[in-house]
Amino acid sequence: MAHYTVNGERRSLDPSAARLDQVIQQLGHHPRLVVVEYNGLILTPELWEAQQVQDGDNLEIVTIVGGGS
């Protein structure tokens, strides 16, 4: 198991999900509805597929919520 901190909470995830886009999917997030900070850097979705996630990395995932009046 690989261990990451996601939104301040330690999580254990399948190590086969080694790319950021795979981790986001494994966590159940829709890629078009989140903003991701990876180890202090905001990464655009175009970079997720190339970003390898390592044991001990820190992710902050913010979900975009629609609405209005």
How does this model look, in words?
Strands 2-1-5-3-4 form a five-stranded mixed β-sheet. The mean pLDDT is 91. It has helices at 20-26, 45-48, and strands at residues 2-6, 9-13, 34-38, 41-43, 58-63. The chain has one domain (2-63): Ubiquitin-like (UB roll) (Roll). The protein is built from two helices and five strands; from the N terminus they run E-E-H-E-E-H-E. A hairpin with a 2-residue loop joins strand 1 (2-6) and strand 2. 10% of the residues are buried. The longest helix is centred in the middle third of the chain and has 7 residues, at 20-26. It is of the alpha+beta class and 69 residues long.
What's this entry about, in short?
The protein is α+β, with helices and mostly antiparallel strands and 69 residues long.
Radius of gyration, Cα only, in angstroms?
12 Å
Question: Distance N terminus to C terminus?
Answer: 44 Å
**Highest-level CATH class:** Alpha Beta
Number of strands: 5
Shape: globular
Q: Show unreliable segments.
A: none
Name the average pLDDT. Answer: 91
Question: Layout of helices and strands, plus pairs?
Answer:
Blueprint: E1 2-6, E2 9-13, H1 20-26, E3 34-38, E4 41-43, H2 45-48, E5 58-63
Features:
5 strands; five-stranded mixed beta sheet; single chain; alpha+beta; about 70 residues; Ubiquitin-like (UB roll)
